[in-house]
Input
Amino acid sequence: MATTTRGIYYPTSSNNIAPLESHFSLLAGSVDQAMAKSKSGTTAEFSLGTTVGTATTVTVTFPAAFASIPTITGTVQTLVSGSAYVVNFFNVTASGATAKVTRVFGTSNDGNLKVNWNAKVE
Output
């Protein structure tokens, strides 16, 4: 068996691939393990004041807890052009985090903001 860079096993020409059930079971298990290391999601909609420097916090809850504390990154999604935001994460745990969203440019009233996030453990 060989392994991808993400740790997923697969049979090669030198492997005896009978019975197939055991190989598919191994493959499914390795994909399951790889997927457990990364989760993505989107928060509920929220609004933010129109003054540059205005900030708010949003709760991020992972759909399932990680085995350890993950690294989390994210972006702010808006339906209105002309404004810019930054998002920082703190109080990160195995089950979630708090996102702080700050307006850094623009004064439009965009009340449909969301945080798109990705969390993963190595």
Notes: Helices lie at 20-36.
